[in-house]
Structure formats: structure tokens, C-alpha cells
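Task: sequence design from structure.
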């Protein structure tokens, strides 16, 4: 039977009693065996309406014979039985039960997404989870719960933004830095020049090598700026996106040259605590980047679609760290997600 990791939280009523009762009901459910429970951790609310009280958070490790959706149904029923009424996003609640991990399965469809899409950067989730399942692996990232928590504890407060051209990532990066009182690291030449769209393999390789050199300088940990105190650093690029761009335009020795230079430069750059990918349909992005100096929109759509696919494929590789996915078409909601994620990492 698979091991499953479940988060518990409450910020209404008798929080300790509610967490205890939720754990008891879960342990007594048919097909569920309790293997461990963390201590209760008090934390401030993250996101949602202002004026909420602090949360008590905990985690339990269970072994179950229930299929994933049956286990989810059991959790939702316990929530209802303990007075949970869903009203508003990230609002106060008597009890909250989240299925974080179901063995090493990855499930996305309908009302269930496993691993939980926000668990990897939420300290209030990882701290109790590390008490009961430190060696359990996040299957999408390839890190253990302990490694995810250590990453939050030790990595610099740096968020790297990425996404296809026209997705709005640069604007969101600037807005996040402003909202969080952080420092913006901007690649002022981030928009590809026309030659990047229709030039030879040699010119495309040189353009990408220039990006790598310029971005490596911005992210060089030996620079004085990285030794200054800052609540947050935000870049309007992700260093790894150079690999994705190169794979859409190059092959053979030219591709090997770019990837080799990128690997060497990667050893000196600051790794992000969180990567945020701003996604949107290629046609929507193309309308945003259309200009007299840009290619026709039809050609741009194909190019953007290729870049988008390459970025998402590169991000999907294990061991890259936590990734937050945002919809660039809804900038306000994306900024809300970003600011909540930054708060949850602290």
C-alpha cells in the first residue's frame, strides 16, 4: 500500500481540538493506517483576506489501500463533518486537509492534483511534513521533503521569472519586486532582435551566447550587489531558459557549444529559490509582441509555440527545484500568486 502525506491546518475555533479530531477520524477510516503525526506549528496566514487569525499546521503520514480519489473524498468528508464551509480563496477555515503526496504518483485532472501544486515552496507545509516523512520524494522535482525544506532555509530569496515571449513575465517581475520591496535584475536586451528569428545558425548561437554571458554577469554571486541585504531579488529571466531557446534554433556542434558555455557559467550563478513560469497560449503572446520590426504574427505563433514547449520541457526535468506556474492572461491573479508564494517561503 502506498504511503501518503497529508497536510492539516486550522485557524478557526479550537484549532488543536480540530486537528486532533481530523487526525483521529482519518486514522479510523477504512483502508487507512496512521504511520506518524507531526507536532503542531503556529504560522501566520499567507494570502487571502486580511484580518485572519494564525493557523495551526500539522502533517500526517498514512498508509492506504484507497485509490487517490477515494482518499480525497474521505478528506473532504472529514472537512465537512468538522464544519468546513468553502467561501473565498485562501480564506479562514475550521479545518483544511490537503493530499500532498500519494506515493510517487503524479496525478492531474479534475479536482485532484498530486503532488500538491504549491507544497514545494510553502514552509508551513514542509516543516511539519519533514517531521513525519523527511525522505519521501516529490516525484516531479526529484527532491526529498528534507531537501525541499533545506532549500527554503538556505537558498537566497531569489525568484527567477521565465516564459515564452509576450507572456508578460518582465512586467510581472517588475511588479513583484515593487510589491515586495525587492531588487529587480533585468536583462535589458531580453526581447530577441529580428536576426534571432530568421538568422543563420551561427548568428542564433552568438545571440544566445551573448544572453548567457550577460545573464551570468547579473547573477554572479561575487558581485557586491549580492552581498547587500535585500528582502528579495527578482530577475525577469531564468538562467536555464537559454538551453530551451537554443534547442529550438540550433543542433549539432552549435547546440553543444551553447550548452557547454551555459553549463560552465551555471557554476557561478545564484540559483533561484523559486522559478516562476508565466504561461499563455502562443497566439495570445504573439498579439502582444507584434510590431513593425517583428515577424508576421503567423510566423511568430510557431516560433513562440516552439519556445514555450522547450521551456516547459526543460522545467519538467527533475532536480530543477520548485516551479510556480502562472497564467499570463490574468496578471492580477498571477501577482497575487507570486506574492503569496514569496510570503510562504519565508
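Answer:
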Amino acid at each position: 500500500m502506498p504511503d501518503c502525506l497529508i497536510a492539516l491546518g486550522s485557524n478557526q475555533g479550537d484549532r488543536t481540538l480540530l486537528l486532533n479530531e481530523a487526525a483521529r477520524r482519518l486514522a479510523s477510516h477504512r483502508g487507512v493506517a496512521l504511520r506518524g503525526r507531526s507536532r503542531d506549528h503556529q504560522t501566520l496566514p499567507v494570502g487571502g483576506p486580511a484580518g485572519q487569525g494564525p493557523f495551526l499546521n500539522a502533517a500526517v503520514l498514512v498508509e492506504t489501500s484507497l485509490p487517490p480519489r477515494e482518499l480525497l473524498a474521505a478528506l473532504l468528508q472529514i472537512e465537512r463533518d468538522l464544519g468546513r464551509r468553502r467561501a473565498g480563496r485562501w480564506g479562514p477555515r475550521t479545518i483544511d486537509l490537503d493530499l500532498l503526496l500519494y506515493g510517487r504518483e503524479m496525478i492531474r485532472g479534475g479536482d485532484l492534483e498530486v503532488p500538491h501544486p504549491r507544497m514545494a515552496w510553502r514552509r508551513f507545509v514542509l516543516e511539519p511534513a519533514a517531521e513525519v516523512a523527511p525522505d519521501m520524494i516529490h516525484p516531479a522535482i526529484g527532491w526529498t521533503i528534507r531537501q525541499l525544506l533545506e532549500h527554503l532555509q538556505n537558498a537566497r530569496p531569489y525568484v527567477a521569472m521565465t516564459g515564452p515571449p509576450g507572456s508578460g513575465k518582465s512586467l510581472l517581475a517588475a511588479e513583484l519586486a515593487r510589491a515586495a520591496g525587492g531588487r529587480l535584475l533585468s536583462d535589458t536586451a531580453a526581447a530577441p532582435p529580428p536576426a534571432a528569428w530568421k538568422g543563420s545558425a551561427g548568428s542564433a548561437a552568438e545571440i544566445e551566447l551573448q544572453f548567457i554571458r550577460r545573464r551570468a554577469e547579473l547573477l554572479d554571486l561575487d558581485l557586491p550587489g549580492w552581498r547587500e541585504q535585500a528582502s528579495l531579488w527578482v530577475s525577469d529571466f531564468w538562467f536555464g531558459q537559454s538551453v530551451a531557446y537554443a534547442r529550438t534554433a540550433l543542433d549539432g556542434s552549435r547546440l553543444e557549444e551553447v550548452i557547454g558555455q551555459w553549463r560552465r557559467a551555471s557554476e557561478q550563478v545564484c540559483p533561484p529559490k523559486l522559478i516562476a513560469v508565466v504561461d499563455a497560449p502562443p497566439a495570445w503572446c504573439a498579439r502582444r509582441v507584434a510590431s513593425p520590426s517583428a515577424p508576421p504574427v503567423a510566423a511568430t505563433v510557431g516560433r513562440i509555440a516552439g519556445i514555450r514547449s522547450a521551456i516547459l520541457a526543460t522545467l519538467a526535468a527533475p532536480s530543477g527545484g520548485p516551479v510556480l506556474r502562472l497564467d499570463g492572461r490574468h496578471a492580477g491573479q498571477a501577482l497575487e500568486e507570486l506574492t503569496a508564494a514569496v510570503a510562504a517561503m519565508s
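Residues 297-316 form the longest helix (20 residues).
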